[in-house]
Amino acid sequence: xxxxxxxxxxxxxxxxxxxxxxxxxxxGPGWSSYACKNCRIEQRLVPLVAQASNSWGGLHHWxxxxxxxxxxxxxxxxxxxxxxxxxxxxFPAAAVxxxxxxDDRRRGIAAVTAQAAVVSLWAAVAPDGLTPxxxxxx
Length: 138
Ligand SMILES: [Zn+2]
What we know:
single chain; mainly alpha; two-stranded antiparallel sheet; 2 strands; globular; binds zinc ion
């Protein structure tokens, strides 16, 4: 068995491996699970360092409000701790927006909050502050 990290989905050793989950161990530090860029896009995985602060280290998937194209751009960033404050806003809001247990008004506010977080994510993948045009290019 190799000590090299490999993708937990396709078992590649390369291709932009990023830690996406941490497996707690009974004593001492746990170990990390890795996923390559392609699998992170396919599975919509959030890098471990970008997960919301209340994460327990399990797998996190970008909520549906994040379009596939943005998921791909985010995967390009690799480890992206700068996304954590955005995840802290996005994940609770997306959960409330999708919930049937809250009233329409709260759900509406949560949906707007989630959309605002998605705009912040677009800004994070466009360092010049411009929202990229899908399928566009220089
Ligand atoms: Zn993979």
